[in-house]
């Protein structure tokens, strides 16, 4: 059962770096819904997009799958015959709960795309040929020096005409834009019941482990990784999702 996110509701003497541990996993669905504007739309549309680009008898990757929300969406929408999904995350608690959610989905929905769940570091994963790759709010947690190599590896693994779906929190070069959208993000969180204390403590915990880029930096890196074209398909405040084509 999903718990309400109260991880930062009480004052903490010391605030360590944010980690996807058991404590976070218990409240993650509530946390991400109340923290990321447009998240349900992004997840559902990832399934629709994957359904258009998945090739028959091909592999689909959900890299940094967390609890498998994007994987569940793709399982509902991908109809190409012979496809299978590989959901990968380096958090053991996430992977354990992800398997539970996918098992429950199996009991509720028939004829789902097969999925395998793997605990692994995606920066060290030997990617197999694939038609679709999803990085749904994952790249921002990868150390910046490793991001280009990961995208290059993904581009190399994609089949001709393959697609990367990349969702990220954005930074903005213009200070006024950055301030305005960051302020509105905090307004969004307050409207979803987070207190000033929770917002401040969560920001302190995550600011050293989640390092966002500008849209321009993402597009430049995608071009350097070999992608022929990229564009955003969704933005809500400072959160965006992109498509990058091989």
Q: Keywords for this structure?
A:
246 residues; alpha/beta; Rossmann fold; 7-stranded mixed beta sheet; 7 strands; 44% helix; SAM-dependent_MTases_sf; transferase
Shape: globular
Helix content: 40-55%
Oligomeric category: single chain
Mean pLDDT: 92
CATH architecture of one domain: 3-Layer(aba) Sandwich
Low-confidence stretches: none
The number of distinct β-strands equals 7
Main CATH class of one domain: Alpha Beta
Total count of helical runs of at least 4 residues? 8
CATH topology of one domain: Rossmann fold
- CA distance, first residue to last residue: 40 Å
Biggest pleated-sheet summary: 7 strands, mixed
Strand content: 15-25%
InterPro entries: CmoA, Methyltransf_25, SAM-dependent_MTases_sf
Organism: Halopseudomonas salina
Function: Catalyzes the conversion of S-adenosyl-L-methionine (SAM) to carboxy-S-adenosyl-L-methionine (Cx-SAM).
Family: Belongs to the class I-like SAM-binding methyltransferase superfamily. Cx-SAM synthase family.
Walkthrough of the structure:
This protein has helices at residues 22-35, 39-53, 69-77, 92-108, 144-157, 175-191, 196-206, 215-225, and strands at 59-63, 84-89, 115-119, 130-136, 158-169, 229-236, 239-245. The chain has 246 residues and is of the alpha/beta class. It has a domain at 39-171 and 209-245: 3-Layer(aba) Sandwich (Rossmann fold), CATH 3.40.50. It has a seven-stranded mixed sheet, sandwiched between helices. Strand 6 (229-236) and strand 7 (239-245) form a beta hairpin. Helix 2 packs across helix 3 and helix 5 crosses helix 8. The radius of gyration is 18 Å and the shape is globular. The model has no long low-confidence stretch (mean pLDDT 92). Belongs to the class I-like SAM-binding methyltransferase superfamily. Cx-SAM synthase family. Homodimer. Residues 60-162 form the Methyltransferase domain. This is Carboxy-S-adenosyl-L-methionine synthase. Catalyzes the conversion of S-adenosyl-L-methionine (SAM) to carboxy-S-adenosyl-L-methionine (Cx-SAM).
């Amino acid at each position: 059962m999903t718990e309400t996110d109260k991880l930062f509701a009480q004052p903490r003497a010391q605030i360590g770096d944010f980690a996807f541990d058991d404590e976070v996993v218990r409240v993650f669905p509530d946390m991400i819904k109340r923290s990321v504007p447009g998240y349900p739309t992004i997840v559902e549309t990832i399934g629709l997009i994957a359904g258009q680009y998945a090739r028959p008898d091909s592999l689909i990757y959900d890299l940094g799958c967390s609890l498998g929300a994007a994987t569940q969406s793709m399982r509902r929408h991908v109809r190409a015959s012979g496809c299978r999904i590989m959901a990968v995350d380096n958090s053991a608690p996430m992977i354990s709960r992800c398997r539970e959610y996918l098992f429950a989905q199996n009991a509720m929905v028939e004829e789902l795309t097969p999925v395998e769940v793997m605990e692994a570091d995606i920066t060290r994963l030997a990617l197999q040929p694939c038609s679709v790759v999803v990085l749904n709010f994952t790249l921002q947690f990868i150390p910046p020096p490793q991001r280009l190599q990961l995208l290059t590896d993904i581009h190399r693994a994609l089949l001709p005409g393959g697609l990367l779906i990349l969702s990220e929190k954005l930074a903005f070069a213009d200070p006024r834009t950055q301030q305005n959208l960051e302020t509105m993000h905090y307004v969004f969180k307050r409207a979803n019941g987070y207190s000033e204390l929770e917002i401040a403590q969560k920001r302190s915990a995550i600011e050293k482990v989640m390092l966002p880029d500008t849209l321009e930096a993402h597009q430049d890196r995608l071009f350097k990784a070999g992608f022929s074209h990229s564009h955003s398909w969704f933005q809500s405040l400072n959160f965006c999702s992109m498509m990058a084509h091989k």
